[in-house]
């Protein structure tokens, strides 16, 4: 159910970049990240300083970003959080790890007779969306190959773990922080079906602190967690609505345009053109509503531009078009 559009208080400003998620905020702390790593791998490292964070903070090239990248001993680990299913994660990780490796060997010669050693990669996604997903799913780059004959010459595997409450119970028991994070997310989702989003997040935070869930983290970062949670949930809802709008608009526009243009280029091709145009229409409508919602939640035009990838002038144009 979509939350109400009215909010009871202005969202406080925060110092963190708006691309953050609660997951990234939580596990950017080395102690929590090491706990997560130990739970996933079965290791028992104790010194969080052994982790070397190598996340590319400015890697927004082609929309490429990763939530957490770190090195431990001779391996590099790429952890990402997703609230919507994305089959393109292996391809994204391929591009991202290429950037990491480029920086790693920047001062080395790849034309020498000596083999340049690089850290072995491990790719993982922590999924907590609302679509039904198994506890463990392996995503492969080769699934994207249009024409694959035999074994692929290039493969990249990503392990996706479902970290919703009630899933991967053994993993949750091994990492208390991840378990409590799942409880917090479940509370937010529960209350957004009963009240407006702002109040739902506030109630979830209050209850978790009272019940000993992520207490120190929530108390220390309350305003930021509240702001980021609202943004996360709204983006998650908008992405679902966007997919629905793309389908519905593409279908109707495709039929209409297909009828007219199909006379000359064939009905099938005409429908495909119509679908493409319809998808654009659906995407624009969803984006416009998303921008308007963010304005209602107290976000500035500059911050909305940062989140959406558009510039401030484009955001203002969208708002002007939506004005009565």
What do you see in this structure?
The model is unreliable at 1-19 (pLDDT under 50). The chain has a domain at 22-105 and 114-174. α5 (176-192) runs antiparallel to α6 (197-210), α6 (197-210) packs across α8 and α8 (222-265) runs antiparallel to α9. The longest helix is centred in the last third of the chain and has 44 residues, at 222-265. The two termini are 26 Å apart. Helices cover 52% and strands 10% of the residues. The protein contains eleven helices and six strands. The chain has a six-stranded mixed sheet. The chain is globular, with a radius of gyration of 22 Å. α3 (89-104) links the parallel β3 and β4. It has 324 residues and is an alpha/beta fold.
The helical percent reads 40-55%
Secondary-structure-based class equals alpha/beta
State mean pLDDT (0 to 100 scale): 81
What is the count of helical runs? 11
Note the beta-strand portion. 5-15%
Unreliable stretches (pLDDT < 50, length at least 5) are 1-19
Order of helices and strands: HHEEEHEEEHHHHHHHH
Using the CA coordinates, give the radius of gyration.
22 Å
The end-to-end span amounts to: 26 Å
Shape, principal axes of CA atoms? globular
Strands of the largest sheet, in order across it? 1-2-3-4-6-5
């Amino acid at each position: 159910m979509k939350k109400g559009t009215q909010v009871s208080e202005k969202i406080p400003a925060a110092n963190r970049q708006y691309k953050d998620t609660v997951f990234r905020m939580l596990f950017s702390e080395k102690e929590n990240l090491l706990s997560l790593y130990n739970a996933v791998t079965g290791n028992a490292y104790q010194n969080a300083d052994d982790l070397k964070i190598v996340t590319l903070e400015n890697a927004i090239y082609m929309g490429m970003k990763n939530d957490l990248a770190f090195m431990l001993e001779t391996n590099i680990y790429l952890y990402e959080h997703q609230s919507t299913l994305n089959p393109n994660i292996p391809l994204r990780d391929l591009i991202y790890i290429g950037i990491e490796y480029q920086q790693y060997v920047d001062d080395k010669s790849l034309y020498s007779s000596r083999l340049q050693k690089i850290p072995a990669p491990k790719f993982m996604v922590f999924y907590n969306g609302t679509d039904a997903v198994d506890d463990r799913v392996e995503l492969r780059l080769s699934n994207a190959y249009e024409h694959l004959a035999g074994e692929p010459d290039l493969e990249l595997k990503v392990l996706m773990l479902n970290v919703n409450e009630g899933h991967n119970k053994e993993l949750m028991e091994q990492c208390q922080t991840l378990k409590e994070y799942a409880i917090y997310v479940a509370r937010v989702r529960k209350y957004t079906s009963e009240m407006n989003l702002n109040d739902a997040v506030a109630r979830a935070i209050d209850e978790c602190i009272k019940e000993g869930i992520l207490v120190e983290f929530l108390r220390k970062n309350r305003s930021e967690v509240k702001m980021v949670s609202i943004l996360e949930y709204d983006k998650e809802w908008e992405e679902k609505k966007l997919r629905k709008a793309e389908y519905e608009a593409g279908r109707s526009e495709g039929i209409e345009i297909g009828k007219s243009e199909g006379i000359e280029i064939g009905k099938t091709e005409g429908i495909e053109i119509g679908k493409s145009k319809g998808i654009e229409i659906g995407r624009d409508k969803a984006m416009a509503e998303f921008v308007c919602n963010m304005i209602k939640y107290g976000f500035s035009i500059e911050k909305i531009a940062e989140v959406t990838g558009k510039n401030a002038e484009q955001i203002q144009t969208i708002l002007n078009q939506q004005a009565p």
